[in-house]
Amino acid sequence: MTDLNSEAGDQSGLAGPGRLIRRAREQARLSIEDLGAQIKLARGTLDALERDDFATLSEPVYVRGYYRKLSKVLPVSETELLAAYEKLVAPRVPPPPSKLILAGEQDLGGSRPVGLKLGVGIVLIGVLLGLLAFWGSRRSEETASGSVVVVPPPAPAVETPGELVPVPTTTAPAATSASPEAAVSVDPSQPPPAAPAASLTLAPSLAQSPVPGLGSTVPSAPAAARPAGGRGEVQLQFNATSWTRIEDATGKSLLSGVIQAGDRQTITGEAPFAIFLGNAPGVSIQFNGQPVDMSQHTKGNNTARFTLP
Fold first, then answer.
1. What number of other Cβ atoms are within 10 A of residue 55's Cβ?
2. Which intervals of the chain are annotated as region Disordered (predicted)?
């Protein structure tokens, strides 16, 4: 009798979890239907468990859960069922690697894909760089809006008296051109265009006279200077930004450039003064303490060119 019990013990040690479940169910005098109703499992699942048909069953984690439910109803322990299960399935499972990281795949030793972590890091870096670029552009715009642009005065034109020009063999036709102030729209914040050079008209007797050679030249007449009218004072109040140029009787530039709104300038020198304003309605002028009416000198583009007094 002792030999039979020992033999049965050896066979139970070699038995799979399915045989242990069947033996415990029969010992409890339960049918498969009664057992399935108690633990809420289908008959097909219980049949697969008693036959150790792990190909029909779900993942190992679910199989272990089934064993836990069965141990609560049948006279068999969960530890005994899991030990028998591990003896059947453990030799088929290759040993897992310690840690394997593949590009774009999941880190087998971690819990999140490496590609996802890398993508999130790149997005965060891009957002930080965008914020820094936006902040820098705003600072540069604020600096540019608060800066004062200083325009250097244009170099005075130098006239060379006695310039020699070749004498043509035929009479040159007289050139006619419209006034540059009427043809060109002047921006108040930009310097006025340079005046066109004066044309040279030859007398008919000189044009018809024979020319000794190509080297024959005639001197040009020097430009007539404005008559001096004594010392004077011009006061300018700028209610709006305007390009301004003022020259005295000797042609010396006393003021030239873009003057900002709110500025006040006082100019003294030899009268008469040649004055050009790019935005005449935005400037108030007094000459020797008397206000000056510029309405008759203001063009349709708000520029004004006149002489005081």
1. 6
2. 145-232
- Burial readout 9-30 (b: 16 or more C-beta within 10 A, e: otherwise): eeeeeebbbbbbbbbbbeeeeb
Q: Which strand (E) or helix (H) includes residue 22?
A: helix 17-27
Each domain of the chain, given as residue ranges in start order, spans: 12-92, 228-309
Asked if 88 contacts 52 with a C-beta cutoff of 8 angstroms, the reply is yes
Q: Is pTM, for the whole model, over 0.85? A: no
- Kindly state the helix (H) or strand (E) to which residue 233 belongs, with its residue range: strand 231-238
pLDDT digits (tens, 9 = 90+) for 234-280: 999 999 999 999 999 999 999 999 999 999 999 999 999 999 999 99
How big is the chain by its Cα radius of gyration, in Å? Answer: 54
Cβ distance 236 to 265 under 8 Å? yes
Beta bridge partners of 217: 166
pLDDT at 153: 59
Domain 12-92 has CATH 3.40.190.10: no
Query: Taking all residues of the chain, what is their mean pLDDT, rounded to a whole number?
Result: 73
- Residue holding tokens 């993508």? 119
And the tokens for 111? 């819990």
